Amino acid sequence: MSASENEGQEKLHDERFAPAQVFAHIRSRLTFALDPAPTELQLSDPVVDADLEHDRPTVFPPATGARAAAVLVGLVAHRGEVSVLLIERAAGLRVHAGQIAFPGGKIEPKDETPAAAALREAEEEIGLAPAHVEPLGYLDPYVTGTGFRVIPVVARIEPRFSLRLHAGEVADVFEAPFAFLMDAANHTFDSRTFGGRLRRFYAMPYGDRYIWGATAGILRNLYERLYA
Question: Which domain holds residue 17?
């Protein structure tokens, strides 16, 4: 086994990432309070102007009229480890086609809370029954370049679930190790030119999956809330 493989195995067996420790730690750090209030948010854009001095994404205020949305940051409680449930968006979508994302979408008037919206969207997109999901708290709201103010809902998922993908929206569902995603050594910066301007964003390559933008930014926020 190579040195990098040994390091990866040690990370997976780190006591901090044992399922009982993970969920106890999350319950001690997260709440269902949104602070600051939604009308006063100052949030990161997933594709942002490069901040070369500090080598990190720039923070922008939310765009006026940003639409409310919620995503489910689902943590699957396997017996020996925790994994993060992620989707690959369908190739034919108008925006974010083929990208790695969390299940989620717009908060509708019928949704009593952002958590309710995230559960509803997860059931509609991938057939995840709410009975298998226990919301644990909110991360910091996140404003996207496409005009959404997203509330990430961290939740515990019982592993004995079955899924039914909405073919028009979701191409695939997969799980990535929580320990891998919570290791800052796996958090990188990448940059691309959008609209003639260089933009810089978080990325977390995992095998042949390229996790970036809003998804990587939300995972980075989870890391900062729990382990930074």
Answer: 3-226
What is the mean predicted confidence (pLDDT) over 123-150? 92
**172-185 pLDDT tens trace:** 999 999 999 999 99
Cβ-contact 157, 128 below 8 angstroms: yes
Q: Inter-axis angle of helices 213-226 and 19-29, to 10 degrees? A: 90
Q: What is the pLDDT of residues 91-113, one digit of tens each?
A: 666 666 568 999 999 999 999 99
CA distance linking residue 87 with residue 167, whole number of Å? 12
Q: Phi and psi of 21, rounded to 5°?
A: -70, -40
Stretch 201-210: mean pLDDT: 93
Q: What is the CATH number of the domain that holds 146?
A: 3.90.79.10
Q: How many domains does the chain have?
A: 1
151/142 Cα distance (integer angstroms): 6
Q: Among 47, 99, 43, which residue's Cα sits nearest to residue 211? A: 99
Query: What mean pLDDT comes out for the span 63-83?
Result: 89
At a CB cut-off of 8 Å and minimum separation 6, what does 72 contact? 85, 102, 103, 104, 118, 119, 121, 122, 128, 133, 153, 155
Beta strands in the chain, from DSSP E residues, in sequence order = 43-44, 48-51, 56-57, 59-60, 67-77, 82-89, 100-101, 104-106, 133-138, 142-143, 148-157, 170-177, 188-194, 197-206, 209-212
Token pair belonging to 171: 């191409």
Nearest C-alpha neighbor of 63 from the set 150, 139, 140, 138: 150
